[in-house]
Amino acid sequence: MKKLQVLYITAFFAACLVPSLGMAVTKQEASSENRRLAEFPELKKENEINTRWLPEAGEYFQEHFAFRNELVTANALLNGKIFGVSTADGVIQGTDNWLYYKDSLEDYLGEELLSERSLFNIAHTLAMMQETLNEKGVQFLFTVAPNKNSLYGENMPYYDSLKVSSDKNLVNLQKYLRQEQVSYGDLYETLSEEKEVLYHKRDSHWNNKGAAVAADTLLSSLKKEHVSYKEEPYTIKTDFTGDLDEMLYPLATTPEEEVYYDRQTTFAYVGEVVSNFDPKITTVNPVKEGSLVMFRDSFGNALLPFMADAYSSAYFSRGVPYQMSEVDEKNADTVIVERAERFLPEMAQSPPIMEGPECQVNVTEEDTGPAGAGAVQCEIQGNLEKITGCIEEKYLDIDSRIYIRLNHDKIYEAFPMDVSTEDGKTDSSGFCLYLDRSLLAADGNQIEILTGNKDSARIIGGLTL
């Protein structure tokens, strides 16, 4: 009996030592996690002893121990296949082998919803972009790629499905998009009408057929001549590996079906493109007409070939905030903004980099002092001056515009935006204005901040820059 105890204890400690001792003889494999792993800490930082060396070393070991991917996969398989529980922070284990992205859970449950003012901030910012582009003869279209569980929530865990809500940011936003007359391509309506499931089971995005349906909706909304893939023949191959599958089971992924259309596209990439998730991609198509700039996220990966095939030239950017100068640089006649449903709150916090439009405003000369405008900050960004700040809530209605009058003369409209407060909460009463620096006087400038609308706006504060 004593020998068995010694053998058991020896085996136990040997197993515990394998991950650490194995670090000396094994090569660390790339992690499937979409983040940078910890680096080995230094004993000294800036010629001083690193007092956090031990916790930093612990973090390094946790992320680099030998056979990490094998052990992570084994643990995930045990919990996922037997107990139906996900071990990856960003992944929800659904039923019938479905996986969902955890960042979409608040939307699904209708929790932490955007305020009415935040919804207005998104819609009005889009309306300002649209108006500026339309004045240049450029078409504009906004669209939202629905979360997978918004369309196919039947395989969400039962404890979440019991709390699902119909009150969602996307639903609430549409009222303000209509109010602001934003050109909107409704992909939720289109995809929900399809009888076939058009998203991958083990990925957070649509498959190629879903992307084709989405592209057809967007191009039809723009009245752009294009090929509809509804009747196009295709081949199905079981060769697609989902992003959620890789996060949860890095060494035991399950390939699933993907649609490949037989029709050959006619566009070509400009320069070297590693994948359709590259931050900036340009395409050309000699047999088509028109020029597109599309601001997009990861849903644009599968969407890109269908959109590129419809335009003579196309430029796809993942950059945030949107650089509107790129529209002029590419001489685009069409701009599309595509955003995943789960990223709508971020849209309220990231107005585009675009000069504020000059406005004719009926000003009520009522100065309530500088307190109404709160703290205002200025920052130079290239040839632009960025002016940001917050308005006291009592000076704002849900749909109040925010203007800045420069040197008692011209008035410019600022983008309304959400800002993060020191306590980690969100304040929806912020603003951001970009001005060409040539408009500013070298010896100082008087800034007046107004709220209201073009028919009636009042001064709530001022300062000198």
Q: What features would you describe in this structure?
A:
With 465 residues, the chain is α+β, with helices and mostly antiparallel strands. Helices cover 29% and strands 25% of the residues. The protein has 14 helices and 23 strands. The strands form 6 sheets. A 7-stranded mixed β-sheet has the order 6-5-13-11-12-10-9, with helices on both faces. Helix 5 (116-135) crosses helix 8 and helix 10 crosses helix 12 (300-308). It is globular. It starts with a helix and ends with a strand.
Q: Calculate the terminal CA-CA distance, rounded to whole Å.
A: 84 Å
**Are there runs of 5+ residues with pLDDT below 50, and where?**
71-80, 82-87
Roughly what is the average pLDDT, rounded to an integer? 86
For the biggest sheet, the summary is: 7 strands, mixed
Number of DSSP strand runs: 23
Indicate the proportion of strand residues: 15-25%
Secondary structural class: alpha+beta
- Report the helical percentage: 25-40%
Count every helix, treating DSSP H or I runs of 4 or more residues as helices.
Answer: 14
Radius of gyration equals: 26 Å
What's the arrangement of strands in the largest beta sheet?
A: 6-5-13-11-12-10-9
- Principal-axes shape call: globular
